[in-house]
Design goal:
Shape: elongated
Radius of gyration: 19 Å
CATH architecture of the largest domain: Orthogonal Bundle
Number of helices: 10
Bound molecules: calcium ion
Strand order of the largest sheet: 1-2
CATH class of the largest domain: Mainly Alpha
Strand content: under 5%
CATH topology of the largest domain: Recoverin, domain 1
Order of helices and strands: HHHHHHEHHEHH
Number of strands: 2
CATH superfamily of the largest domain: EF-hand
């Protein structure tokens, strides 16, 4: 039964992602249902809810920043129904784990701008930098310092000088200096975490634990 349910999912999902082999897509689907503690193909909801997904980001990918974890959830949830479906899961992980630089750039930009507007505004840069600084040193509350950083970021990335960062601005800046990719906060797993994840999930499927 489980095998049949799995096969029904693997083929259509494999067609949408180039960076995973079929056997790997199968492992990721199994993991998805394992995490939800459901048999493959048998969900009672539309997928993984925000809390469960944040647990995955935290426990498996070592993310700690609440604001960024929420934003990553919204980027994974492509159809905005507040659940990450198994299709959205595999697709999102393909960028997360094996995305080409261009895909990662688009992903980070989407995390930073959040839905709605297609640019990163001065206010958002302020919020993100303040948030990321307060995680580093919670005792220091210094809006002036953050404002200064916002100005520096805009100076560096706002090529057309309209006070906000469009995707074209972001792309240009990040291509020039790859360190700017996660400039407003870490939203992609590092290489070591990816390798660890792939080893566990693709070699010992399903993994006993993380
Ligand atoms: Ca969804």
């Amino acid at each position: 039964m489980e095998q049949r349910a799995l096969r029904k999912l693997v083929d259509p999902i494999s067609k949408t992602v180039k960076s995973f082999k079929k056997s790997e897509v199968e492992c990721l689907i199994r993991l998805f249902y394992n995490l939800l503690e459901r048999p493959v193909g048998k969900l009672t909801t539309k997928g993984m809810d925000q809390n469960t997904f944040r647990g995955v980001l935290h426990n498996i990918f070592g993310m700690t920043d609440d604001m960024l974890m929420n934003r990553v959830f919204f980027v994974f949830d492509k159809d905005s129904d507040n659940y990450v479906s198994v299709q959205e899961w595999v697709k999102g992980l393909s960028v997360f784990l094996r995305g080409a630089f261009e895909e990662k750039m688009k992903f980070c930009f989407e995390v930073y701008y959040l839905h709605g507007e297609c640019y990163i505004s001065r206010e958002k840069i302020f919020d993100m930098l303040k948030n990321s600084l307060s995680q580093q040193s919670p005792e220091e509350e210094n809006d002036e310092g953050v404002k200064e950083l916002v100005d520096i970021s805009l100076k560096k990335m706002d090529y057309d000088n309209d006070g906000k960062i469009s995707f074209a601005d972001f792309e240009k800046a990040v291509k020039k200096d790859r360190l700017l990719l996660e400039v407003f906060g870490p939203c992609l797993p590092d290489a070591k975490t990816c390798l660890h994840f792939e080893t566990l999930v693709f070699k010992n499927n399903p993994p006993a634990s993380f």
